[in-house]
Write a structure and sequence with these properties.
By secondary structure, the protein is of the alpha/beta class. It has one domain: Aldolase class I (TIM Barrel, Alpha-Beta Barrel). The protein is 28% helix and 17% strand. The protein contains eleven helices and twelve strands. It has a twelve-stranded mixed β-sheet with strand order 7-8-9-6-5-4-3-2-1-10-11-12. α4 links the parallel β3 and β4. α1 packs parallel to α2 and α2 runs parallel beside α3. The relative contact order is 0.16.
Length: 334
């Protein structure tokens, strides 16, 4: 199974994951689970949502094997996502397995359980951690997440910084809900070497998205510019975020502008859902099952390459966000 796929892939070019628009893909996001210990409005709106049963999820050895195939095709960066990846019982084992691959390994988390995994992160070579946090107000946090873990998350962010991890904090900005917290996040970067990333509210199944709820990049930038002297930083070729800094501050902030200014032209990302489906775009309405053929001992390389070739030029070929056909965010992987 894996040996066949690897033998075939080693006969290919250094990066075989190029689509019809000339984009080479070297970054794979792997969801470990669609379970989560928070209930964020924009991600898991239904309190009664049922997580995928464990036997239908990719198992640790399957994640490792499939990841090796992607690596052999040119992937050199892997991010673990969820749901909340750290709620998975074998999360530590998966991180240690993937640390044996010649890739940059990173993780996205809500940080509720980070204190239990600091040593594992270090042993697995993880140096950068993305933390999802949408407000710096405890009451507002409870309203958004329907959970009371704000203090613990803040302590764990401090813990990550104390252990010299690069920390990015992702804030989904929703008009009428938390846009007033944008300034607080910018102030947070004064004495802390954080990278804050403000994300435009995106549509997914069940999250009650409306265009009027989008607090745009332009609106955020104008709001911040009223109170701060800011400078534009240089963005790397594959960056999804437009980076800025307040003059003299320790940290930075950036904007992920999926709705108003999509950055699809330089996209280098592929996704693997927790149940082993490959998505060539976050907004793609189609997906390719890799887990079933993998378990049957079949070569998955043709499936991977076909999915990459089918990738649309922009936002999964969607031009109408009002009638979205997709999984919920938690079932895709953040």
């Amino acid at each position: 199974m894996y040996e066949l796929s690897l033998t075939l892939s080693l006969q290919m070019t250094t990066n075989s994951l190029s689509d019809t628009f000339g984009r080479a893909h070297n970054y794979l996001r792997i969801s470990l689970t669609d379970a989560c210990n928070l209930r964020c409005l924009y991600c898991m709106p239904d309190e009664k949502v049922i997580s995928t049963p464990a036997p239908k999820l990719m198992q640790a050895d399957e994640i490792e094997g499939i990841a090796r195939v992607f690596q052999s095709l040119g992937v050199n960066k892997i991010r673990l996502t969820g749901g909340e990846p750290l709620v998975r019982k074998d999360a530590a084992d998966i991180m240690k397995r993937l640390s044996n691959l010649p890739v940059e390994l990173t993780i996205s988390t809500n940080a509720v359980l980070v204190d239990r995994f600091i040593d594992c992160f270090k042993q697995s070579g993880i140096k950068s951690v993305n933390v999802s946090l949408d407000t710096l107000n405890a009451e507002e946090f409870f309203a958004i997440t329907r959970r009371g873990d704000f203090k613990r998350i803040m302590e764990n962010i401090d813990l990550l910084l104390a252990h010299q991890f690069k920390v990015k904090v992702n804030m989904v900005v929703m008009k009428g809900i938390n846009e007033n917290s944008v300034i607080d996040f910018v102030k947070w970067t004064r004495d802390n070497p954080l990278d804050i990333r403000f994300i435009e509210f995106m549509p997914f199944a069940g999250n009650a998205w409306e265009r009027d709820k989008v607090f745009s990049y332009a609106e955020m930038l104008e709001l911040i510019s009223r109170d701060f002297e800011i400078v534009k930083l240089e963005d790397s070729h594959h960056d999804t975020a437009k980076k800025y800094q307040v003059s003299g501050y320790s940290g930075t902030f950036a904007f992920i502008t999926t709705i108003t200014e999509p950055f699809c032209g330089t996209c280098n990302r592929l996704r693997l859902t927790a149940d082993g489906k490959m998505k060539n775009c976050l907004f793609s309405s189609t997906e390719t099952d890799l887990l079933k053929p993998w378990r049957a001992g079949e070569d998955i390389i043709p499936l991977i390459l076909s999915s990459v070739k089918d990738k649309k030029q922009e936002r999964g070929g969607r031009f109408d966000f009002e009638n979205i056909e997709n999984r919920s965010m938690i079932r895709i992987g953040g």
